[in-house]
Amino acid sequence: MTDPRISIIEERLKGISNIIAVSSGKGGVGKSLIASLLAVILARKGYKVGLFDLDFTSPSTHVILGVEGLQPKEEKGIIPPQVHGLKFMSIVYYSGDYASPLRGADISNALIELLAITRWNTLDFLIIDMPPGISDATLDIIRLIKRINFLIVTTPSQLAFETVRKLINLLSELKIPIVGVIENMKMKESRFIQQQVEGKGVTFWGEIPFDTMLEEAIGNVNKLLTTEFGKKLEELVTKNLK
Amino acid sequence: MHEWALAEAVISTVSQIAEKEGLKEVAEVEIKVGELQQIELDVLEFALSQLKTLKFKNAKFNIQTVKAELKCRVCGYKWLFKKEKMNEEIAEAIHFVPEIAHTYIKCPKCGSPDFEILQGRGIWLESIKGVK
Fold first, then answer.
1. Residue B2: pLDDT band by 50, 70, 90 thresholds?
2. What angle do CA B87, B106, B84 make, to 5 degrees?
3. Full-model pTM
4. What ipTM was assigned to the predicted interfaces of this complex?
5. Which residues of A fall within a CB distance of 8 Å from B20?
6. B1 → chain A, closest CA residue
7. Do A110 and B14 touch (CB under 8 A)?
8. Which chain B residue shows the shortest CA-CA distance from A109?
9. A17-48, pLDDT tens digit by residue?
10. Given A76, A95, A116, which is nearest B100 (Cβ)?
11. Could you tell me the CA-to-CA distances from A59 to A169, A183, A207, A233 in Å, in that order?
């Protein structure tokens, strides 16, 4: 018995120049905000960008982007709708406001299905918002997308970095490119994370200060871009992603 | 059509297998389609006929549907998926991503969404015959 969907995935992704998974060992470090705004910032720089929310059990990028009432177009597969100048794909188009309690094998199957049927066409960047940890979705992305790159998000907390350290070790062992590490929610002066990251031979993109005004801007992309978080992320993207 | 994307996947996979096994021509492909995904068979057949390459010129596609059997992980109850009991929007969501069943379907006995799809999820290739 053969699953026919696997062999078409490379074909579906062949028009994409760069695929970046925004990942972390822990939840709550700002992955979804960074993935969403990274996609918007790149789109506003004139690139063709797609954003794929892969956090199937807890999707949130649609909330960050203020996406409501949209559905993909069905045309020999699925064509993601345009939102804020980027192509946006999420399981919420199908699950709506309801919970999606999925086990690992179901997550893999849903991921394979969406990779096999979504037509991104040509893109400069596909940004993937990953669920936290190094479980099914991370392993599947590594298995199914040979050209994957990782952008890792941590906070200054040693609890977050402890898991990020393991993620970096795993990706390095597997020779998966890491484009960089962002230290988010920075609250006081310390070079600990930067030293640790650079000590592992990985690019430290920089830090983003803890922004108390960020929550109020969620759902409003223009407002998000003018927050301290948004401005700093844009600076890091301009500096590091060439 | 979503069926078109799946037909492309079938042709691509069979081509790869035929290449690997040194088949000059594909004679017969047995495809199983699970009822959970509610694939429209005539659309799938039409897409397959349109996507055929030279290697498939005499190929026959045998498509069989398989009932979708679900089993509750909490109480062990087994039941069959019935499209007729679904509203259209939910049925369509499950058509695109069968795992969405876990969002809308609950065990008829205990109400849990934690069930296993024992068989009949989506599309898979059962066998490929060809001429060497």
1. confident
2. 30
3. 0.95
4. 0.93
5. none
6. A76
7. no
8. B99
9. 999 999 999 999 999 999 999 999 999 999 99
10. A95
11. 27, 22, 25, 21
